[in-house]
What we know:
Blueprint: H1 3-23, H2 32-52, H3 57-61, H4 71-74, H5 79-87, H6 91-102, H7 106-117, H8 124-133, H9 146-152, H10 160-202
Amino acid sequence: xxxxxxxxxxxxxxxxxxxxxxxxxxxxxxxxxxxxxxxxxxxxxxxxxxxxxxxxxxxxxxxxxxxxxxxxxxxxxxxxxxxxxxxxxxxxxxxxxxxxxxxxxxxxxxxxxxxxxxxxxxxxxxxxxxxxxxxxxxxxxxxxxxxxxxxxxxxxxxxxxxxxxxxxxxxxxxxxxxxxxxxxxxxxxxxxxxxxxxxxxxx
Length: 203
């Protein structure tokens, strides 16, 4: 028998043992001791069958199909699921799901979840948050991460006026430098000429 079949058989075996224990409570059927012994043997057999099927300790005593799954595990990742989780009181899980959809930060996720949950999510801000989180449902591509948004943002290029102003500044600086150099050269030549005149007069 396959493992799922063993688990089903173990569940049915436990039900049968419980039924025999109930019969022990009816006068004239079987004794209470026999009912208790049968019920105990049924529980042991149920445990053996479940362990043979590969179930964990938790599954052995508390089967998965008898446990209630958390709400956030049953909802698909979407904006509507984020709104449903927050309205059900699971804001932390709603923020986690929203950040998983958008790749945004914690503060942005908290503000977006609050906006999505208020008034049914019909305002312009909530619509924009929905388009960012689930662009595929609005005619876009896959969710965009923060790094992709930064890389896709166009960088500011210098305008023509800025380039012309920069050229004028460079040209004026070059002109000023040449004027200063020529003045310095003239002063130096004048000093040497005066020395030559004084030497000639002394001779």
